[in-house]
Amino acid sequence: NCKVAVLISGSGSNLQALLTASNKTGAPFSICSVISNRPDAYGLARAAAAGIAASVVDHHDFSSRTSFDRALIEAIDRQTPDLVVLAGFMRILTPEFVRHYRGRLLNIHPSLLPKYQGLHTHRRALQAGDSEHGATVHFVTEELDGGPPVVQATVPIQAGDTPETLANRVQVQEHVIYPLAVTWFAEHRLHMQGERALLDGALLPRNGIR
Ligand code: GAR
């Protein structure tokens, strides 16, 4: 059984989707710890309700990104996870951190990467007049939101959409594709090779599977 550490900063709805998936009979993974950089993240209450060890590593307590990331690594490695999952974790990680977990660090980003790396993805998709939008699960590399995609979900953009209505539609899909990708990893079907992702030994398309 694959031990998964989940890093959050906020609501933790993706954490919830992973908790729910991990509680199904025969699930190949379990959540061994939840770590938040914000003491007020609602996801901490979700972890507590699920009886999962949760801790806070508050970035305000550190004078540099390097010292924060080192404390984060210590907190994570204490639980010896096989996989580290970023679920709405809103801090940029140092190359040192990313290298430490290379090949076993996943993120979910609310856009159809490589479109809209960074913040405000829903607003930017609307402003661009796109007809579709979505979310991407990808391996994390040193390039921000630039690591190899694993799986993408698409949603239509509808007349009258606001960033909020669009975000809600995307999140429903996030809660499907993140447990899927984590399940693949836990079943040893998903790997990172160089700058590409492999599923069942086959290179995934550059945008991941849709
Ligand atoms: C999710 O929509 C995720 O894609 C996004 O934050 C939200 C977290 O929601 N992540 C990023 O923007 C990463 N840069 P949650 O806390 O309810 O899972």
List keywords for this structure.
210 residues; alpha/beta; 7-stranded mixed beta sheet; 3-stranded antiparallel beta sheet; binds glycinamide ribonucleotide; Phosphoribosylglycinamide formyltransferase; Formyl_transf_N_sf; GART_AS; transferase
Give an overview in words.
With 210 residues, the protein is an alpha/beta fold. The protein contains six helices and ten strands, in the order βαβαβαβαβαββαβββ. It has helices at 13-22, 43-49, 65-77, 95-100, 121-127, 163-186, and strands at 2-8, 29-36, 54-56, 83-86, 105-109, 132-139, 149-156, 190-193, 196-199, 202-203. The strands form two sheets. It has a seven-stranded mixed sheet, sandwiched between helices. β1 (2-8), α1 (13-22) and β2 form a beta-alpha-beta unit. α1 packs parallel to α6 and α5 (121-127) crosses α6 (163-186). The longest helix has 24 residues, at 163-186. The relative contact order is 0.16. Bound molecules: glycinamide ribonucleotide. Glycinamide ribonucleotide is lined by residues 8, 10-14, 43, 87-88, 108-110, 135, 171, 174.
